[in-house]
Amino acid sequence: MKKDVTIPSKDGGSFSAYLATPETGGPAPTVVVIQEIFGVNAVMRGICDQLAHSGFTAICPDLFWRQEPGIQITDKSEIEWQQAFKLYNGFNVDLGIEDLKATVDYIRADKGSNGKVGALGYCLGGRLAYLMAARSEVDCSVSYYGVGIDEILDEAGNIKKQLLMHIAEKDKFVPLAAQQKILAALNKHNNIEIHVYPDVDHAFAREGGQHYDKEAARQANARTADFLATHLAKAKKAQVGT
Fold first, then answer.
1. Is the full-model pTM beyond 0.70?
2. Catalytically annotated residues
3. Residue 19's pLDDT is what?
4. Using a CB cutoff of 8 Å and minimum separation of 24, what contacts does 21-24 make?
């Protein structure tokens, strides 16, 4: 089943989220899919659909609702990129984390959830997945090419559950110095697993994107599938990607 749902925020508003549930029915582990800077668009919805096909409940909340609800843009035009960066620059990370926590609470209370919830984020969502590992009660988190993590490494001490990180070696938004800082700080944590993908740029796992790399995406998605299967106690591996 696929539908849009409404989630109450913790400060009195409400926001929408795309929800995809497995056809098998019954309580299932859940993955909160965290958007890129393009909103809850076809790429994010496709990831949710694949997770649902694998037997997971997947939900992707609209984190830009405080600025402009319902954003669904692509990476195909300069105008859309300008709009995406404007939304990114106006985004309040702390409020976004609160909205993600509200999403976790919402889906854990749903009869279709077995209570196990993981976070999976890309780009901006990769940063937020890292912060969800540090600030929330999710059971595990996955970060794809998260931006700005080098600026929030002091949060790592609060990470108690497992975190998987995918880093693009040639990421134009996360330069080598930032990557080295991240690796030096986080490799010492036994519950943080980091993989660096050589010679690929930001968003290497976004199928159809400018920097999509089929082999790197395959490796990262396979690792993510194993990780979710292990830490959300799911026998069947998730199919991740679009």
1. yes
2. 171, 202
3. 97
4. 21/52, 21/57, 21/58, 21/112, 22/52, 22/53, 22/54, 22/55, 22/56, 22/57, 23/52, 24/55
